Amino acid sequence: KKRYNIALLPGDGIGPEVISVAKNVLQKAGSLEGLEFDFQEMPVGGAALDLVGVPMPEETFTAAKQSDAILLGAIGGYKWDKNEKHLRPEMALFYLRRDLKVFANLRPATVLPQLVDASTLKKEVAEGVDMMIVRELTGGIYFGEPRGIKINENGEEVGISTEIYAAHEIDRIARVAFETARKRRGKLCSVDKANVLDASILWRKRVTALASEYPDVELSHMYVDNAAMQLIRDPKQFDTIVTNNIFGDILSDEASMITGSIGMLPSASLGESGPGLFEPIHGSAPDIAGQDKANPLATILSAAMLLKYGLGEEKAAKRIEDAVVDALNKGFRTGDIYSPGNKLVGCKEMGEEVLKSV
Amino acid sequence: KKRYNIALLPGDGIGPEVISVAKNVLQKAGSLEGLEFDFQEMPVGGAALDLVGVPMPEETFTAAKQSDAILLGAIGGYKWDKNEKHLRPEMALFYLRRDLKVFANLRPATVLPQLVDASTLKKEVAEGVDMMIVRELTGGIYFGEPRGIKINENGEEVGISTEIYAAHEIDRIARVAFETARKRRGKLCSVDKANVLDASILWRKRVTALASEYPDVELSHMYVDNAAMQLIRDPKQFDTIVTNNIFGDILSDEASMITGSIGMLPSASLGESGPGLFEPIHGSAPDIAGQDKANPLATILSAAMLLKYGLGEEKAAKRIEDAVVDALNKGFRTGDIYSPGNKLVGCKEMGEEVLKSV
Ligand SMILES: CC(C)[C@H](C(=O)O)[C@@H](O)C(=O)O
Ligand SMILES: CC(C)[C@H](C(=O)O)[C@@H](O)C(=O)O
Questions:
Q1: pTM for this model (two decimals)
Q2: Cβ-based neighbours of B234, under 8 Å, separated by 6 or more
Q3: Contacts of B197 in chain A (CB under 8 A)
Q4: B251 and A228 in contact by Cβ < 8 A?
């Protein structure tokens, strides 16, 4: 029997509910494929702030770093919104990404046929959307130096953030994107603002140079403002998108909303080696926390990504993906994806229905 | 009789067609209100590159600078796409904005009842959308230093762009936004990424500090990733949005596509003093240039903004706005906004129909 160490970081708001459900699903799918998991649950974000005064305790990081893969719930909440920057729950995500060196963030945006009505886009525009956004996660303007609020020569405050990418940072994320596109429909669109930003000019140059190593992938380039439009005009034109940290933040959220079911979308953050970080893309939803109303499917599907991308256990991953489709086909819906004619269930019951089909 | 000098910069692609139509409309609306215009037409962008080898000739800038207001068509085209950065048509926009110091870019996104079907959003989501995006236009990552492609200590290329805002730059755009919101529905949403970027932390601090001077305006803040989602989920929640140069670039294009009629949307760029710059937000559309297919309404409505915001001639502006609605009510449509049951017309004919109603 294969054994894996899984770090569970439930975090805040609906995090604990969805993690508890996803853990059960992961365990069953694994055991049916001969896998055993040792789970270690650790506090992170606001929960850690309340417990030990910092958003990312040393022990949590050590447990995460030593695991084979990390499943995270959600981070943040009104309660800590007025905290100073370094004492905000979100900083935990920041440190985790940076210190685990998980530079490649994979964010699928898929419209399932069962849920096409949940989109605010017209049915004919939304149906069949199936894209993967590959976002650079440990560089760019999120981490670039210099940064801060300084006083200039006129005694005036100036806010500074630096968008900076070295060639090797662009190359490694571009390779992940080319490999991803190769396993999908073979189309890669690199999004930048090379008509204005020097950081984007280098980005485009490096991505273009790599294309010759992937002759089976069709590469195109698009400016970020145009991409923001095209995602609404005709999202089906996209297969795989690769872009920098801040554009990826914006476009992946836009794309997720196009699917209409942000409660359904998982993500994976991967490095060159070491454990990957898997989490739903939705937030901590403090307004519905603790009420058994959350949609656990994004976290369950993150567990599937954990199996597939984190551990290379594709069969177990497939079991989970199929089980989710099964539960949807049977008409089970949490409130966020409910439409008349279906069966409204809570977080736990949705988990049980998925579990039955695993 | 009042006389005004208007600089006309037709530019590239469909630019000349739409400018020629808008000029006639402007002239008629003005003369009915006792205004006379002296037009001076000058080359810019690709047209200027072909003529004199630079995208923004000295003479063009001088004419623009000395005018009372500038009406611009569109800039760019495949032909110059491989040019080096400083010889690209788009640089003309860059220099114009910077040297005219037009820091406030007003971009309305409105869904007209006649055109609600043109949106890819569901009718109930799109109808009634009426927002104004106030984008900072002469600062931030578009102009910040240091920038460029450098070699780092490992001999590796590094691309650098700097997002930088001084307090007074934030204050002056925020004031324009508060004033704009005050004249609209009194709601202002400031969009930033203050959970990550120091430049955004200063942005939020300054905007918040100004709010006490505008007690009649309801101020809120939103992260840019969330804003990209909310524009799709429920665009009607927005009245006035204020944001930095790059976020404004992305979000205003997204908002324009939500209306489904990018061929309808004008823009105004204003400074503290000196002439304003007025232009449609659509591009030069080289694929349909010279075929009398372009929609001139965005440029005609830009002429209305020129009258209203540039010259303070509200009555003449209103004449143009009403005439556009009139032509639409009569069923005239260019190809981009055509739907069955209406009358398909070309650029010139649409112009004539508007002219009749002025
Ligand atoms: C919470 C925030 C720092 C984070 C980001 O901007 O990366 C989030 O928006 C995300 O996309 O994971
Ligand atoms: C052409 C380009 C430089 C420009 C910009 O990014 O500002 C355009 O996208 C715009 O929004 O006016």
A1: 0.96
A2: A120, B125
A3: 141-142, 147, 159, 161
A4: yes
